[in-house]
Write a structure and sequence with these properties.
Number of strands: 3
Helix content: 25-40%
Number of helices: 5
Radius of gyration: 17 Å
Shape: globular
Largest sheet: 3 strands, antiparallel
Strand content: 5-15%
Structural class: alpha+beta
């Protein structure tokens, strides 16, 4: 069992990043109440890297799926390890230079993460809505498969 204390879960039309993950105990407890909630996905669940990560995580954690903060932490370590390798040093200036000039594959996205001169990453986080218990991407439109379901005003 995992403690999900502090994970924001709600059935409001705009929900937290965590509430889009439907395979954590708090979300499962909400059941259909969570349908139509919208938020952003911290990762692209359709990539082979993410699917492999989830399978390995579940195998190591008794079948429980990772929560978004675990995935973010995993990706951060992937980026840091690759930047240290690229820098050939553990000195912060060398790592910073490697981060600024590198491209880093992660479990987050099919697109490797790069950083602009201001430190902002190029990671686009899809907007999704829970429909029938599953997150459905709505944006970006190239990835989106559905329009938002039943407006809250008509529920």
């Amino acid at each position: 069992d995992r403690d999900v204390t502090g994970v924001q879960t709600c059935a409001l039309p705009i929900s937290s990043v965590a509430s889009i993950a439907t395979d954590i105990p708090a979300q499962q407890a909400l059941g259909a109440t969570n349908d139509y909630a919208m938020g952003n996905l911290t990762e692209d669940p359709n990539t082979p890297a993410y699917k492999a990560y989830v399978a390995e995580w579940k195998a190591d954690h008794g079948g429980a799926a990772p929560v978004d903060t675990s995935t973010l932490g995993y990706a951060a370590v992937q980026i840091l390890a690759a930047a240290i390798d690229k820098a050939g040093s553990s000195q912060s200036a060398a790592i910073r230079a490697a981060l600024a000039s590198g491209s880093f594959p992660t479990v987050m996205s099919a697109t490797p993460i790069k950083f602009a001169s201001n430190g902002q990453s190029n990671l686009n986080q899809p907007v999704a809505q829970i429909q029938n218990g599953k997150p459905v991407e709505l944006w970006p439109t190239a990835a989106g498969t559905f329009e938002p379901a039943v407006p809250w005003s008509q529920r």
